[in-house]
Specification:
Elements: E1 3-4, E2 15-16, H1 19-27, E3 35-40, E4 43-50, E5 66-73, H2 74-83, E6 88-91, E7 93-95, H3 98-110, E8 119-121, E9 128-134, E10 137-143, H4 151-155, E11 161-167, H5 179-186, E12 190-194, H6 207-210, E13 216-217, H7 221-228, H8 233-240, E14 246-250, E15 256-260, E16 265-269, H9 282-296, H10 300-315, H11 327-340, H12 342-347
Helix pairs in contact: 2-9, 7-8, 9-10
C-alpha cells in the first residue's frame, strides 16, 4: 500500500506513490536518490486558443471561445511527473521576461518541480507557442532562439535520480544521446527515451544502435515502424526489443503494447475511450505514468493501463501541461468507473491498491491570463 506523506494540519496533503519503496530503502539502510526523475529541454510559454470554428484564413480574423496559458514543451513532461507524485527535477533555460517569470513560478511554486539546475538568462526571451485547437486537432506557431549555452554546460553533473527521460537527437535526425544521460546512467538512473518525429523523412535506423545506452524506448506506432522498417506495431515492438530492455509502442486510439526483457512480460492493452478535447501533452503524461510504474515495480500490464488512463484524463482537458491529472483526478475517475462499469472495474481493479483513500491536493488548470505573482500559490 502507498500512503500520504506526514504533514501538519495547515499544509496541503500530497500523495506519494513511492512511499512503500522509500520505507523499504530506509529499513535496509539505503539512501535513495533525492530525485525520482530528471529531465532537460526547452520550456515554452504555451498560449492555447480553443473553440475555434476554423483556422483563420489569410486576411481574416477568428474569435476563439476560450483561451489558456501555461508552460509547455518539456514542462508538459515535468508537470505530468510531478502531479503523479514523482520528485521531479528539470534543467531548462528561462528568459528574464514576464513569460519566463510566469513559467518559472508556475513550475517551482505551483507544481513543485525542482529547478536547481535551471537558469535565467538576461536578454534572452522565452520561447512562445500559440496553439489553435479546431475539431480535436491543433495547429501551432512557435518562435524562439537556441539556448545561450549547451545543455551539458547547463546541467553540469546531473542529480542522482531513479530515472531520466530524454530525447534522442533533434527530431531524431541526429540520433545521439546527450552526454549527461550517460553520466546519470552510470550513477544508477534508468534511461527512458523517445525520438519524436523526424522532419527529414529519413528515419535513420542508426537510432537503434543508440538504444544500447537506454533502458526503455517509448515511440508511437508510426515512429516505431519507420525506424525498424516493419509493417505493424507488433513487428516493430519485437524489433525494438532486440535493442532495448523495455520497448513500448503507443498506438493512439488502439492502445499500447510493450515487451519487458527484465521481467519476461509482454502486454497489449486497449485505449480508454474518451472524448478528446486537446491532445497536447498526452504522450508526456503516458510516459510519466510508465516511468512511475516501472520505478515502483508494477506488472507491465498495470503500467500500460495506468499510463493510458492518465493520458486519457489529460486529453479530456484543455491546456497542455496543466491538463495533466493528479491523484485526485485519477481517484475520482476510478470511483465513478468502479461503480458504473463492470468491464472497467475488472480491468483496472489494481487501482484499488493505488489511489488515495483520503483527500489530496487538487490541481490547477490553465487560465486565460498570465497570473500576477500574488495569484500563484500552492493549490489548496
Amino acid at each position: 500500500m502507498t500512503s500520504t506523506v506526514q504533514v501538519t494540519m495547515h499544509e496541503p496533503v500530497w500523495w506519494d506513490p513511492l512511499a512503500q519503496l522509500r520505507r523499504s530503502e530506509l529499513a535496509e539502510g539505503i539512501t535513495g536518490p533525492p530525485v525520482d526523475v530528471f529531465m532537460s529541454g526547452t520550456v515554452f510559454l504555451d498560449i492555447v486558443f480553443t473553440g475555434l470554428p476554423a483556422i483563420p484564413a489569410a486576411g481574416t480574423e477568428v474569435w476563439a471561445a476560450g483561451m489558456a496559458s501555461c508552460p509547455g514543451g518539456i514542462a508538459n513532461l515535468a508537470v505530468a511527473a510531478a502531479r503523479l507524485g514523482l520528485r521531479t527535477s528539470l534543467a531548462a533555460g528561462f528568459g528574464d521576461d514576464v513569460y519566463g517569470d510566469f513559467c518559472w513560478r508556475t513550475l517551482a511554486d505551483q507544481e513543485r518541480v525542482d529547478l536547481a539546475r535551471s537558469r535565467r538568462f538576461a536578454r534572452w526571451h522565452s520561447p512562445v507557442t500559440v496553439s489553435m485547437a479546431v475539431q480535436r486537432d491543433r495547429s501551432m506557431v512557435t518562435h524562439g532562439h537556441r539556448l545561450p549555452i549547451p545543455a551539458d554546460e547547463l546541467i553540469g553533473t546531473p542529480p542522482r535520480s531513479r530515472a531520466v527521460i530524454t530525447g534522442i537527437g533533434e527530431g531524431a535526425a541526429d540520433p545521439v544521446l546527450p552526454s549527461w544521460v550517460a553520466r546519470a546512467r552510470r550513477d544508477g538512473a534508468l534511461v527512458f527515451a523517445d525520438a519524436g518525429w523526424d522532419p527529414t523523412g529519413v528515419w535513420d535506423p542508426a537510432l537503434l544502435g543508440t538504444l544500447a545506452g537506454c533502458d526503455a524506448f517509448m515511440p508511437n506506432a508510426v515512429e516505431a515502424m519507420r525506424y525498424t522498417r516493419t509493417s505493424s506495431p507488433r513487428a516493430a515492438l519485437h524489433a525494438l526489443a532486440e535493442h532495448v530492455p523495455l520497448a513500448v509502442v503507443t498506438c493512439g486510439a488502439d492502445g499500447a503494447l510493450a515487451l519487458d526483457a527484465a521481467t519476461g512480460e509482454e502486454a497489449c492493452v486497449p485505449a480508454l475511450p474518451v472524448d478528446a478535447l486537446d491532445p497536447t501533452g498526452a504522450g508526456d503524461v503516458f510516459g510519466a505514468g510508465l516511468v512511475l510504474g516501472t520505478i515502483a515495480g508494477w506488472p507491465l500490464e498495470h503500467r500500460l493501463l495506468f499510463a493510458g488512463v492518465s493520458a486519457a484524463l489529460a486529453v479530456h482537458e484543455f491546456g497542455g501541461s496543466l491538463a495533466a491529472p493528479g491523484w485526485g483526478d485519477i481517484g475520482d475517475w476510478w470511483r465513478r468507473s468502479r461503480a458504473t462499469d463492470p468491464d472497467l472495474r475488472e480491468r483496472y481493479g489494481f487501482l484499488d491498491d493505488l489511489v488515495p483513500r483520503t483527500h489530496v491536493c487538487g490541481v490547477r488548470r490553465a487560465a486565460a491570463t498570465i497570473a500576477r505573482h500574488s495569484d500563484v500559490t500552492r493549490p489548496a
